[in-house]
Design a protein that fits this description.
single chain, 449 residues, alpha/beta, 19 strands, globular, FAD binding, FAD/NAD-bd_sf, FAD-bd, oxidoreductase
Length: 449
């Protein structure tokens, strides 16, 4: 048992970081969220797809009505090749609805962030701090100290790194591991993620022939794109196979964007003639990033633990990245809940778990998530490989297997029991909103029970 009160320092105020804020607020635990950007809610970034596993958690937090108002459901992807020829719709999303009770929904990052922010109590919103670029994380026997570039410091019990693929917390965790005896056994690689694809995303007004709710993919050698159309704006993500895979990060300029458009601007976005170049010309926002892939061997060290893209990075083809980050928070919160319950059952309701309890919770969290995340990463990589026709096998699968709805339904049903084992918060009461053919293995806690 620890005599010191528990406080979590969450680094990263994106969707996963704000989900962590909700988890801590619902547990009546003290926390602070440190975000490097100038505001918590920014009108920046591409759209996100919320799958049933993520939607169910947000529903448990009471956010589903707001999510439904700000998002569009998707029942299928229309698929064409680089010449605009139909290669068959895919109904993965229809089978998600049948199996798990909800269509995936496409939502802008801004709208999701606004909903997560506004869904917190006022006192919890005050703990979300922008303009806090973390520069150092130090751990000790009694807790952690986090230092920011502006000179401010924050002390707590644990640090949760929710700061993305280029995580400062992950780098600090590696340094801490290497500074200890036999620490190299607990240290991750300095550059753990491999980039095989780069991406350009473009936001533009939804105009004919695109209609609100449209979801489309263009497939072919070395490049694929996904379109998600909202009521007012649409977003395309274009994924280009790089000449050589790299573990180095890249920063892209407007000149890089123009070169990208010169290579791929002719590709159709949707049947009807609109091209990538058309979207770029009428863009309201655009950007380029690398699509890192990989999974860390160690998700925690000492009092530091990683969630979401800081621990594992997906290509976006299956929309699984943000959703798995949300579920990471759930799994971590449940293990901390177990640690609190064990101590308080033995010592009383004012007791707090000590370092050994916390480290055990971190280990249990990774064990609960690792295999599922690894499988999801492989699935996302295969999906991107198929859409970019990376070899003859992928091209055959894309054109002749994924166009057969009986086979797609078979694969979706085969995977459904795994999806149904996705956890929800054990200590948050709510009502089940998603009921499909496959019952959820972990029910939402009913009110009063």
């Amino acid at each position: 048992m620890s005599s010191q009160a528990f406080k979590a320092i969450v680094v990263g105020g994106g969707p996963v970081g704000l989900t962590a804020a909700h988890s801590l607020s619902r547990a009546n635990l003290d926390f602070v969220v440190l975000e490097s950007r100038p505001r918590i809610v920014l009108d920046a970034g591409s759209n996100l797809v919320l799958l049933p596993i993520g939607l169910r958690v947000l529903s448990q937090l009471g956010l589903l009505p707001a999510i439904e108002r700000a998002s569009s459901p998707m029942d299928r992807f229309r698929r064409i090749d680089h010449k605009g020829r139909d290669i068959g719709d895919t109904l993965w999303f229809t089978y998600f609805k049948e199996n798990h009770g909800a269509y995936p929904r496409v939502i802008s990052r801004h709208d999701l962030m606004q909903i997560l922010h506004d869904g917190l109590p006022i006192e919890a919103q005050a703990k979300l701090l922008p303009n806090k670029k973390v520069t150092c994380v130090s751990t000790g026997t009694d807790g952690v100290i986090v230092t920011c570039a502006d000179g401010t410091t924050y002390t707590g019990t644990i640090v949760v790194g929710a700061d993305g693929a280029h995580s400062t917390v992950r780098n600090q965790m590696r340094v801490a591991a290497l500074q200890t005896t036999s620490g190299d056994l607990r240290a991750n690689e300095e550059k753990p993620f491999l980039t095989t694809y780069r991406s350009m995303w473009i936001r533009f007004a939804t105009v004919p022939p695109i209609k609100p709710g449209d979801a489309s993919e263009t497939h072919g050698y070395d490049c694929t794109l996904q379109l998600f159309a909202g009521e007012e704006t649409s977003v395309i993500g274009i994924y280009e196979r790089m000449e050589e895979p790299s573990r180095d990060s890249s920063r892209y300029t407007e000149a890089d964007e123009h070169a990208f458009i010169s290579r791929w601007g002719h590709l159709p976005i949707i049947e009807g003639g609109m091209t990538i170049a058309d979207a770029y010309t009428s863009r309201t926002q655009a950007g380029m990033v690398n699509l890192e892939e990989g999974i860390l061997k160690h998700w925690s060290f000492d009092r530091i633990v990683l969630v979401g893209d800081a621990a594992h990075k997906f290509t976006p083809s299956t929309g699984a990245g943000c959703n798995n980050g949300i579920v990471d928070v759930v799994a971590l919160a449940n293990e901390l809940y177990h640690a609190f319950r064990a101590v308080r059952d033995a010592e009383g309701e004012t007791a707090f778990p000590d370092k050994l309890h916390i480290l055990a919770a971190f280990n249990e969290y990774q064990q609960a998530r690792f295999a599922t995340v690894k499988d999801g990463l492989e699935g996302a990589s295969q999906a991107t490989g198929a859409a970019t026709w990376s070899d003859m096998t992928h091209r055959f699968v894309d054109r002749h297997i994924l166009s057969r709805q009986s086979l797609v339904k078979f694969f979706a049903s085969r995977n459904a029991p795994v999806v149904a084992k996705t956890p929800v918060f054990e200590y948050v009461e709510g009502e089940e909103q998603m009921i499909g053919k496959f019952p959820w293995a972990y029910p939402i806690k009913e009110s009063g029970l």
